[in-house]
Design brief:
Elements: H1 2-29, H2 37-48, H3 57-85, H4 96-125, H5 127-132, H6 143-154, H7 163-189, H8 199-230, H9 239-250, H10 259-290
Helix pairs in contact: 1-3, 1-10, 3-4, 4-7, 7-8, 8-9, 8-10
């Protein structure tokens, strides 16, 4: 049901959004190499050509599908938990705030599947910079070579470098994500049922949710990228130490490098995601009622 619609929706999201995501990770990890989004695009194209924008696409696809499947699967379950905790009747509608709490709770489960796939993705996206800056030796630039090097160096737990920062990003982030989405839907519905909204308000609400998520947790995401990429060269630093180093050596603004491509991507990607989610949910409801 839901996942069958989320997969094409997620694939479309990743394929259109991947170049923006690559720019984001490069700018977050090496802000001193790029003056801005245009500079980063031009340099990437001149150094690695067009495929440079699509490095890490396969782990990004797996990450997107796995995260969204787990997220929306757990979201329904977490909504029931919130209903029980709040002592609501099974048929009672949750408030926007309660939905946001359920989404935040669900994202903790999603982080467990997301962390390893994002680690591989971020490392592939910044392989060129890591090699040219001499931080790592030249190596094969494939998904399998990255996976093998993680296993060889750190064993299976190596895939969870940056888990605490992934959780620090996901849990508050998805509170804002579902909160922004539900508040926007309430705004567009103005008195009517939220379930009657057409595709345009749904997409706009999804876009608003995405922008709320990124504005709230962007610095955390920036630190996560640093931890996941720089641990490639054997440097292990935790969240707090990495955060303090960045602020001390590069200033607060470094935490926001790469924000522009993220914002450009957030609106269409999350708009499409929620549209797919709501329509698949309606289809499932209709099928259940038919039985």
């Amino acid at each position: 049901g839901a996942s069958s619609v989320l997969i094409p929706g997620g694939t479309a999201c990743v394929l259109t959004g991947q170049p923006f995501d690559t720019m984001k990770v490069k700018m977050q990890t090496f802000p001193d190499l790029y003056r801005g989004l245009t500079d980063c695009c031009l340099k990437t194209y001149s150094q690695v050509g067009f495929r440079g924008f699509y490095k890490g696409t396969s782990p990004a696809l797996i990450a997107n599908i796995a995260e969204n499947s787990v997220l929306f699967m757990c979201y329904g379950f977490c909504q029931q938990v919130v209903q029980k905790v709040a002592g609501l009747d099974k048929r009672a509608k949750l408030s926007d705030l309660q939905n946001a709490a359920a989404g935040s709770f669900a994202s903790a489960f999603a982080a467990l599947v997301l962390c390893p796939t994002e680690l591989v993705k971020c490392r592939l996206q910044t392989m060129y910079e890591m090699e040219t800056s001499g931080k790592i030796a030249k190596s094969q630039n494939t998904v399998w070579s990255v996976i093998k090097s993680i296993l060889r160096k750190d064993g299976p737990l190596g895939f969870y470098h940056g888990l605490s920062s992934t959780l620090l990003r996901e849990v508050p982030g998805y509170f804002f994500f579902f909160g922004g989405y539900e508040l926007s839907r309430s705004f567009f519905a103005s008195g009517r049922s939220k379930d009657e909204l057409g595709p345009v308000p749904l997409m706009l609400s999804g876009g608003v949710g995405g922008i709320c998520l990124w504005l709230a947790v962007y610095p955390v995401d920036c630190i996560k990228s640093r931890i996941q990429v720089l641990s490639m060269s054997g440097k292990q630093a935790g969240f707090i130490r990495t955060f303090i180093n960045v602020v001390k050596n590069e200033g607060i603004t470094a935490l926001y490098s790469g924000l522009k491509p993220t914002m450009i991507r957030a609106f269409p990607a999350n708009g499409a995601l929620f549209l797919a989610y709501e329509y698949s949910r309606k289809l499932m409801m209709n099928q259940l009622e038919a039985y």
